[in-house]
Amino acid sequence: MPECHTIPCLLSPWSEWSDCSVTCGKGMRTRQRMLKSAAELGDCNEELEQAEKCMLPECPIDCELTEWSQWSECNTSCGKGHMIRTRMIKIEPQFGGAACPETVQRTKCRVRKCLRGPGMEKRRWKEAR
């Protein structure tokens, strides 16, 4: 038998790399090439696709807060006062994420009227004695 000569397969050039698979953070990108003609007297074992990792700027992380606490007691025992409630920051914003909204709220409260008058001062003075 005469000696066989193999002719390698013909491939197109590699395509440009694709865009990263994510818009921020870690992802993958790929490129391909085409088989132009099969190898004669043999197999074409060349790879037709390649993949690699890609890294874009970190993804924004928005502020996260706990639920509101219960309203506090009114800060006065009579008359006008205020109550507050709070919430804690669980995650600080990062990489341009949404800022934290308020963590303390205050509202007015009114408890029974305070007893004041000319007779009250004398009564208190007598009780103090």
TrEMBL record:
Residue ranges constituting the Spondin-like TSP1 domain according to the UniProt record: 63-114
Gene: Spon1
Keywords, alphabetical: Disulfide bond, Glycoprotein, Signal
InterPro entries registered for this protein in UniProt: Spondin/Thrombospondin_T1 (IPR051418), TSP1_rpt (IPR000884), TSP1_rpt_sf (IPR036383), TSP1_spondin_dom (IPR044004)
Gene3D superfamilies for this protein: Thrombospondin type-1 (TSP1) repeat
One GO-annotated biological process of the protein: cell adhesion
Organism: Platysteira castanea
Cellular component GO terms held in the UniProt record: extracellular matrix
SMART domains given in the database record: TSP1
Protein name, UniProt field: SPON1 protein
